[in-house]
């Protein structure tokens, strides 16, 4: 992994960084910096190590939260935008979105419901997603025993 200060510098200069592990070579990893404008895919977004624990690795164009409280640092996000989320549990899922301790939205997502929630991070250090966790196996949906929260599809800059 490149030096964390390098990624932080790119974030401060208006870029987000994606990480791609090369499947044919276990030691090769590519990092791509893109401007924080338009649509930002979430699945390969490089997260700081201290916040990555609340997230599963990205796959299939989305990234799951895996803790009751997961954060995206403001430094890697646009100042304002929309976060696109989905509930794929076979139950309703209460969700709260916060900029630090300031509540931006509280919604209850129905099964299979997708929403877009606007955010403004001026003065905030992180965008927090708070929701209950669940397991597809525990709900009898599949043999998948991962602990999941809400699925994040993308972030759109405003």
In summary, what is this structure?
This protein is mainly beta. 8% of the residues lie in helices and 42% in strands.
Please characterize this protein's 3D structure:
It is a single chain. A hairpin with a 2-residue loop joins strand 7 (93-99) and strand 8 (102-109). The mean pLDDT is 88. This protein has one domain: Jelly Rolls. It starts with a helix and ends with a strand. The strands form three sheets. Strands 3, 4, 6, 9 and 11 form a five-stranded antiparallel sheet that branches. The radius of gyration is 16 Å and the shape is globular. It is mainly beta and 158 residues long. It has two helices and eleven strands, in the order H-E-E-E-H-E-E-E-E-E-E-E-E.
Question: What is the CATH class name?
Answer: Mainly Beta
Helix fraction, binned, reads under 10%
Morphology call: globular
Q: How many structural domains are formed by the residues?
A: 1
Helix-strand string: HEEEHEEEEEEEE
Strand count, sense and barrel status of the largest sheet are: 5 strands, antiparallel
Total beta strands: 11
- Compute the CA-based radius of gyration: 16 Å
Low-confidence stretches: none
Task: Tell me the distance between the termini.
Answer: 30 Å
The CATH architecture comes to Sandwich
Q: What structural category arises from helix and sheet content?
A: mainly beta
Write down the CATH topology. Answer: Jelly Rolls
Mean pLDDT: 88
């Amino acid at each position: 992994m490149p030096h964390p200060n390098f990624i932080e510098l790119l974030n401060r200069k208006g870029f987000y960084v994606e990480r791609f592990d090369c499947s044919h070579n276990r030691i090769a990893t590519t990092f791509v910096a893109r401007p924080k404008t338009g649509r930002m895919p979430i699945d390969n977004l490089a997260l700081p190590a201290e916040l990555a624990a609340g997230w599963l690795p990205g796959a299939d164009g989305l990234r799951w939260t895996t803790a009751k409280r997961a954060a995206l640092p403001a430094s890697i996000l646009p100042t304002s935008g929309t976060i696109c989320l989905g509930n794929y549990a076979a139950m309703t899922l209460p969700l709260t979105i916060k900029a630090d301790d300031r509540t931006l939205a509280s919604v209850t997502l129905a099964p299979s419901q997708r929403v877009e929630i606007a955010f403004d991070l001026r003065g905030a250090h992180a965008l927090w997603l708070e929701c209950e966790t669940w397991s597809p196996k525990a709900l009898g949906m599949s043999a998948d025993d991962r602990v999941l929260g809400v699925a994040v599809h993308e972030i759109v800059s405003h």
